[in-house]
Amino acid sequence: MVTLKEIAEKAGVHPSVISKVVNGKPVSIRDDTRNRILALLKELNYQPNKAAQNLKKGSNRAIGMVVPDFFNTVYAEIIHGAENMAAQLEYTLFVYSLKQKELQDDYLPRSIKQQIDGILIASSDIDDSDVLALMDELPLVLVNRLSKGIDSYVVADDSGGAKKAVAHLLELGHTQIAHISGPLYTGTGLNRFQGYRAALNEKDIPFHPALMVEAPYSLVGGYNAMNELFKAPVQPTALFASNLLVAIGALKACNEHNIRVPDDLSIVTLHDAEIAAMMTPALTTVKLPLYEMGETAVKQLVSLIDENHKKGTVVEGTELIRRDSTKKWKR
Amino acid sequence: MVTLKEIAEKAGVHPSVISKVVNGKPVSIRDDTRNRILALLKELNYQPNKAAQNLKKGSNRAIGMVVPDFFNTVYAEIIHGAENMAAQLEYTLFVYSLKQKELQDDYLPRSIKQQIDGILIASSDIDDSDVLALMDELPLVLVNRLSKGIDSYVVADDSGGAKKAVAHLLELGHTQIAHISGPLYTGTGLNRFQGYRAALNEKDIPFHPALMVEAPYSLVGGYNAMNELFKAPVQPTALFASNLLVAIGALKACNEHNIRVPDDLSIVTLHDAEIAAMMTPALTTVKLPLYEMGETAVKQLVSLIDENHKKGTVVEGTELIRRDSTKKWKR
DNA sequence: CTGTTAGCGCTTTCAG
DNA sequence: CTGAAAGCGCTAACAG
């Protein structure tokens, strides 16, 4: 690895001159020396040493992102959006999954905390109190989650999306609409539930608690919840599932119970991904702007780092994607 | 952020002494000063500055991992295994997805290359030549892929797994067994294809080229390939799909063509994940030790970094998981 | 326009 | 047992 000093020797100038050239500092440098240096730089393929720069400047142009795990395509899309924006802003993005265990002694290992200038938290497995503590150490923005006392976040229009999904069901003539909600201690779970309630309200359809089950955002979560629903005193003709994985799990349960989708039960869910179209029947979804959320989150974090701009944004834009899992109700 | 020097001042000793205490150096230090220092360290919550350490030592205890994208649960499992082992070995793992674009000027951005001591390549989108070039710069191990001229890799027993899958079909009485292979320019695609051939050979069943279609490892890849297969002059009674996503895509195509699985067509595939059980019918798979591969890859990379041990390992252990997509053939 | 100097925070070798 | 000093590679303020 060639260093500034070496270049300086070969060029017969002082290292600091090289530094100025490399960093394009607004100082005047004689053209011939500048060119000589530039040539050398290229010839020897000079690459500044990051560790030295970091030490000197006390910053890395790197940000971290914490996701619960890598199995959920919802996060995959957020990550890709974040990666893209980070690259545009010339930041490096490091992604980690964080399980409970690691939170115990320290919220984030030092090895990570010290290499980044700010962090994106996209995991709802981390307690509010831990997030608050983290916020004292680093610029932080929440992604697709909310936390008491933190007004720096990027979320989708969960309640609007939910409302749109349920309104679709309503339009199809359904009135017995079940909801498998996300965990109600999460912002997304709560907002989606509220969207569901709001849509029902608009049509003066009473909320029936027996038609609602709370479940984690996972395949088995949806599967188990649907099985719960089968035990309800009234049977729904449609289901609004809080998330794609939940919907897939619910669909499985329906298949096992010989409930035909969409003939016996219409299903609509939030989040769109390729897999939704590959299910049988292909799932009707409301697409959330996940990619954009990732982008926005990085943009916002960087502005927080650079200018201490703190704010919350909800990325608008939800889109109903009609496929084959919803159908007009007539009986 | 409190520094060594500050601690030293408060303790009334020289910074270097603190350094020795912090790092548990095998030098004798009087008990009372050591305790005094230790107390101070805790009280002020001293955290060594990583950038300074990196600069000084020229190493980071960090490794990178490159995956094609975050949508594939196959990689999710490898990542989790790698994360786990990295944590055990006290390395930090940074994961990135790498698309074509970024490869153009430089295989890996400097911002990343310089922060890591070695790299795991789990993406087959990167050309062999690029991988070779990268290997000149960094200790490198290939994960779940092979590359000409690189004998540092960790792969699963792809051909053994494939053979096991096809043997299962054979045992069920199938003889017209189609194969949707992975890209044959990849090591995994090739090995799985060979396993398929080997299983057929053992039962003296001729290989029928019309029953084989090459496809990328993706949902649409499988979907399109299956549609190709429907045009074949002979119709298979069973399918061996090279990968779980491919199988899901193929299943979708079958559903659209009213081919009942498993009655008209049995399907078996490689890789197991929760989603396999959630399909209807639940997919029979051969489980590959992905998590272990991730672990092994990190272990091997670290031994390459520390002791320059270069080797290739195939992580053995494949397991047939019978579910509902395969069935005895009788007609 | 170019050079000097100092120092980021830490580790390590050598001396006391 | 503890201190001094040097230096990793780079940057920035200041001097020449």
TrEMBL record, chains A, B:
Xref: InterPro entries: HTH_LacI (IPR000843), LacI/GalR-like_sensor (IPR046335), Lambda_DNA-bd_dom_sf (IPR010982), Peripla_BP_I (IPR028082)
Molecular function terms, GO-annotated: DNA binding
Pfam families in the record: LacI (PF00356), Peripla_BP_3 (PF13377)
Domain HTH lacI-type span(s) in chain numbering: 2-57
Keywords, alphabetical: DNA-binding, Transcription, Transcription regulation
SUPFAM superfamilies in alphabetical order: lambda repressor-like DNA-binding domains, Periplasmic binding protein-like I
UniProt-recorded name of the protein: LacI family DNA-binding transcriptional regulator
